[in-house]
Amino acid sequence: KLHSDLDKGVGTVKYTLSGDGAGTVFTIDETTGDIHAIRSLDREEKPFYTLRAQAVDVDTKKPLEPESEFIIKVQDINDNEPKFLDGPYVASVPEMSPVGAYVLQVKATDADDPTYGNSARVVYSILQGQPYFSIDPKTGVIRTALPNMDREVKEQYQVLIQAKDMGGQLGGLAGTTTVNITLTDVNDNPPRFPKSIFHLKVPETSHVGSAIGRIRAVDPDFGKNAEIEYNIVPGDGGNLFDITTDEYTQEGVIKLKKPLDFETKKAYTFKVEASNLHLDHRFHSVGPFKDTATVKINVLDMDEPPVFSKPMYTMEVYEDTPVGTIIGAVTAQDLDAGSSSVRYFMDWKNDVDSYFTIDATEGTIATNELLDRESTAQYNLSIIASKVSNPLLTSKVNVIINVLDVNEFPPEISVPYETSVCENAKPGQVIQIITATDKDLSPAGQRFSFKLSSEASNKPNFTVHDYRNNTAGIETQRNGYSRRQQELYFLPVVIEDSSYPVQSSTNTLTIRVCRCDSDGTIQSCNVEAIFLPVGLSTGALIAILLCIVILLVIVVLYVALRRQKKKDTLMTSKEDIRDNVIHYDDEGGGEEDTQAFDIGALRNPKVIEDNKIRRDIKPDTLRFTRHRPPAEDNTDIRDFINQRLQENDVDPSAPPYDSLATYAYEGNGSVAESLSSIDSLTTEADQDYDYLSDWGPRFKILADMFGEESYNPDKVT
Question: In what order do the strands lie in the sheet with 228-233?
C-alpha cells in the first residue's frame, strides 16, 4: 500500500505505478494506493520486482512528492521437487569388495530458495537395492553394504534412489532416479577340469604338427581373468606331444611332435596342467590357481606304406663303367602286422634317369649307359617302393649317385694364351706367369709340371721356369728383341699331371714383341707403329685427327651459312619488288608512289632537259609554258593541284621529293596527252558501238545502252 502525507482522503491525490511488471503483474488503485498482483508469481522465474510510485494532484496533474522506488520480493514456497539432472546412472564396482566400498555419488537439484526454510534441503534414501548397497543421506554417496558379493552369483543390480526436500519431513516433495550397478570380474576362481581323465584315439599315420585332440578346463571368471595356460607335465610319453591354448575357446589343443608307430608303442599316458595367466595376490589364500588332468592316447593301427632303411642313399661309380654294373641297392619293408612284399621302381623325371635301372624285387641299381663325369658329375634319382598287397601305398627315397673321375684329359694352359715382351727386355726377365687347368676332377694334392718341348729347348729366345706350385714363369734369354726382325714368337710348353695314368699336353704360347719405355710400360704392339716418326705417340695422332675433323666441320658450316644468306637476300629482293607495286584507281603514280613507278613518261621532255633538278631537293616554283590555254572545265582540277602542292611545300614533315607538280604535265600539251575523258576532244558521238551487237547475248544490254543513247556534251562533268 502506498500513501502520501498530502492525501487527506478527499480524492485530490492520484497514485501512479511504473517499473518491472507494472500493469502486467502488478496494478495500483489510483485513489487508495493499494497494490495488487493480477497473476500468479513464481520465485524461480523472477525472485523480485523493482517498481517506482508517485503521488500526483488530480487537478493540476503535478507531482505532490518526488518519485519513490521500492522492491517487491517474492517469498518462496515449496513448489519444486528435487530432480536428478544426470540420471539414470550407470556404475560398476569390483566383485568381492569389502563393505563400504565406494560405488557412485548422485546429486539432486531443488529449484526452491535454499536460504528460506527447508524447501531446498534434500535428503537421499534407497527405495530399492538393499541390503546390497547403502547411500549417505546428505552427500548421496552410494557404497557397498554386503561383503564378498560374487559376480559369478549375480552380476547386475538396479538401485532406486529417492531425493526428498523439507529435510525428509512429511509433506516434502521427492524425486527418484535409477542406478544400474555392475560387478566387475576379479580372478577369484581357479580353472578346473570337468573330469580327471581324457581319452583320445589317434591314427598312427597322423602327421607331425597336426592337432590330434582338445581338452578344456572351466574358469567361471571373465575376460583376461579366465585366460588359461596349458602345459604337459614332464614324464612318461609327454615328449611326443605338445599342447597350446586356443585363444578364442580357451581349450588346450594337443599336437603331435613326433610320428607315431603302432608297432612300436600302442598307448601313451601323460598329465596336463591348466593355470591362470593373470593372478590376483588378494586371493592366494584361497588355494593354487591351477588344476591337473590325465590324458590317455591310444594309437590306432593303420595300413602304412613301406619304410626305407635310410632316409637317403648315396652311391659312387667310376665313369666309363661297363653297362649293367650294379652300383648299390635300396631296401624297404612293410612294418605292419601282416607284412607284405615290396616292389621297387624309378620315378622318371627326365632323360637323365635312363642312365640307371633298378631291380623291382631286389632293389639293386645298375648302370644302363656309359657315364661321363665331365658331362654329368652327379645324378639324383627318386626310388619308389610300393606294397604288393596295396599298390596305392607308396613311399619315396632320394638316391644320389656321384660319378668318380678317371684321369683321361691332359692339363692345359689357363688363359691367356698370348703375352708380350719388350724390345729392351733383359735376360732372365719374367714376362708371364702361367697356370694349368684339368677337365678331370683333380684329387687333393694334384701337381702340374711345366717344361719346354724338346724342339724349343735348343732355341735361345725364351725358357720356362717351373715354380713347383702348379705355376711357371716364362723368362727371356736374350738381351733385347727387334720387331723389325721378328714380331711374334711361338713357345711350345709341355704340361703333365700327377694322376694315373699320367696325361700331358703341348700348349703353344704366343709372345708378341712390343715397344716399351724405359720403365717397361708397353707403348705400342702394332706393326704399323714401326714406321711412325720417333716421338709421335698415338695420343698425338688422335689429337691431330680430331683437329682436322673440327676444321672440316667449320668450313662446311660456313659454306652452308653463306648459301643460306644469299638465298634469303634474293627472296627479300623479290618480295620488295612485289610489295612495292602499288595499285591506284586513277591515273598517275599517286602521292605515295615515290620509287616503284617512274612517272617520267608524263613529264614534258623539254622542261626536263631545261630544268634538271634532284628529286630529293625541294623544287622551286616552276613555270611551264602551256601550249594551249587551259580549258574552262580544268579550272577546278588546277586549283586542287595547286592547293595540295602548296600544302606539301610548306609541310616540314613531308618528304622533299614528293612533289605534286608532276601532275601538271598530264593533259593537253603533254607528250603522253590526256589520260582522261574529261575535256576530251573526242566525244562519245564519234565512237561506233555497233560491234557490241556482234559479241552475243551477254553484251546485249551494253549494246542497247551505247547504241541508242545520243551524246550530249553538256552532260559531261
Answer: 197-203, 290-300, 267-276, 228-233
